Amino acid sequence: MDIVTFGETMLRLSPPGRERLERATELEFRAAGAESNVAVNAGRLGAETAWLSKLPDSPLGRKVTATLRSQGTTPDVVWSEDGRQGTYYLEQGGEPRGTNVVYDREGAAVTTAEFAELATDRIADAGYFYTSGITPALSETLAETTADLLEHAQATGTTTAFDVNYRGKLWDAETARDGLEALFPDVDVLFVAERDARDVLGREGKPAAIGRGLADEFGFGTVVVTRGDEGALAVRNGDAYRQGAFETETHDAIGTGDAFVGGYLAQRVDGGSVEDALAWGAATAALKRTIPGDVALVTREEVESVLAGDGADIDR
Q1: What is the b/e burial string over 199-237, where b = at least 16 CB atoms within 10 angstroms of the residue's CB?
Q2: Cα–Cα distance measured from residue 45 to residue 262, given in angstroms and rounded to the nearest whole number
Q3: pLDDT per residue over 115-134, tens digit each?
Q4: 188 falls in which pLDDT band (50, 70, 90)?
Q5: Domain annotation for the chain: domains and CATH numbers
Q6: Annotated active-site positions, please?
């Protein structure tokens, strides 16, 4: 197994086009979750992936696993008689209205998931274990489980990757910083949006300085700072590698960060360098923005087409 991920996957309900929720008469129905998005995205690009979680033994829970399996990853879940299937409602809107997300996830079965009941043998056999800052924000139990899984992965020789992925609707910045930094000693590869590095982790300076500072303080092997329209930067062994963003026509921006991570990790498990991985992440993210839903349902050939003639620059 190349990559194993852990986290919550919800059902995304959204009115077609840019219709308002309050007057919608129909809703699109999709599975969506940061960690399963990454598993699917990397799986589409050739990696062997699995997603771990806990779901209600219900038609809605089975909808999630059926969707993920059809999209290219292996779900390995604990089925629960208690708890519910989390959902969220997405209302797309242009400026100045913007896009609005309404969560309905309280009491979800996943919030009670414990280390001992999960398929941790998959993590021990994987090249990478990935989760994000969304998961420990959902419950005290999940904060403990996330810590236990990261520690287990490192103890068994599996490289750990973690995306800060801050959500202000789940916890405030100060609480998030304390919770995240408690996990960092067991993280090998950190992904962080530049805005989260500044607003949540309290970092200052240029992106390369942010990456180097985090790597020095917490011992990360690699820090990837994503910068939206400015592309991304990775720091590894003191060197900083820069990758620009690809031009894209945005149809649905949700899941862009997960597409970047999926593309990056897929290239790393395929033997690619950090420079290669940055380029694959940026290309996958650009393609995702053209696709409705949270997942980058793309092919290697499409990513390679976007990549033609582009690469990352190294700053030593």
Answers
A1: ebbebeeebbebbbbbbeeeebebbbbbbeeebbbbbbe
A2: 8
A3: 999 999 999 999 999 999 99
A4: very high
A5: 3-315 (3.40.1190.20)
A6: 258
